[in-house]
Amino acid sequence: MFHASAHLFRPAVKLAAAAAAVLLLNLAAPVSEARAQTTVFAAASMTNALQDIGKLYKEKTGKDVVFSFAASSALAKQLEAGAPAGIFISADNKWMDYTEGKDLTLKATRVTPIGNSLVLIMPADTAKDVKIDKSFDWLAFLGADGRLATGLTDSVPIGVYAKTALTNLGQWDKVKGRVVGAESVRAALALVERGEAAAGIVYSTDAAIAKNVKIVATFPADSHPPVEYPYEIVKEQDTPETQAVFDFLVGPEAKAVYAKYGFVVH
């Protein structure tokens, strides 16, 4: 009787095992699909353009691209800490050089398809056009207690560009006490939009998408290094899918979107 019962239960055990296997496969499927997506770490100033480009890629291929936007400095540190990404787009060469130096990104894939310009903005209701040169009186421009918003001047690319430009114009020591360093260019833009800063130094493309600010001056090109955006594939992520996304991000359709948002296309 015991042996007969064992035989009776064997099919049930096999069915249970099969059901468990199917369940595991079903649970694994979303994970596999998630891993198949390419994640792009990109400078905050590229948010709107890349979101549009991601939609184009989805329309053409049916595949999603996942974007993570922040200051290039923060993204480079995240890569160093092991955060998963397939592509890194920096708002300056410094942080791409950093990831290369840490053997995190593939130097052989590096391209620089776009650039930007450095501008001075004000809230639209207080804006007044000015000319930036070595004789420009920043303290008079900002007023008695006005603040100048930009990125953190020791790490965030827009802040580094701003400090370099002000230093080259002989103005940094005069104005540094008024500077408010934000965690990204979009955070600096928001301070000016809300009227919490009298003015801000951002990229022209960020000013272009803001509703309540106005560009009042463009910094002289020789006051700072060219604003460039290098792209690289992350080490050990050089898969066909990642390469396809990378090629699209630097291709003609993407460049048309960059141009629409005011980036300088190379």
Automatic annotation (TrEMBL):
Residues of the signal peptide: 1-34
Superkingdom per UniProt: Bacteria
InterPro entries linked to this entry: ModA, ModA/WtpA
Gene Ontology terms for molecular function: metal ion binding; molybdate ion binding; tungstate binding
Keyword Phosphoprotein: no
Residues reported in the UniProt entry to bind molybdate: 45, 72, 185, 203
Gene Ontology biological process: molybdate ion transport
GO cellular component: outer membrane-bounded periplasmic space
Pfam families attached to this UniProt entry: SBP_bac_11
Keywords: Metal-binding, Molybdenum, Signal
Assembly and binders: The complex is composed of two ATP-binding proteins (ModC), two transmembrane proteins (ModB) and a solute-binding protein (ModA).
Family statement drawn from the similarity comment of this UniProt entry: Belongs to the bacterial solute-binding protein ModA family.
Name this protein carries in UniProt: Molybdate-binding periplasmic protein
Species of origin: Ancylobacter defluvii
Organism classification: Bacteria, Pseudomonadati, Pseudomonadota, Alphaproteobacteria, Hyphomicrobiales
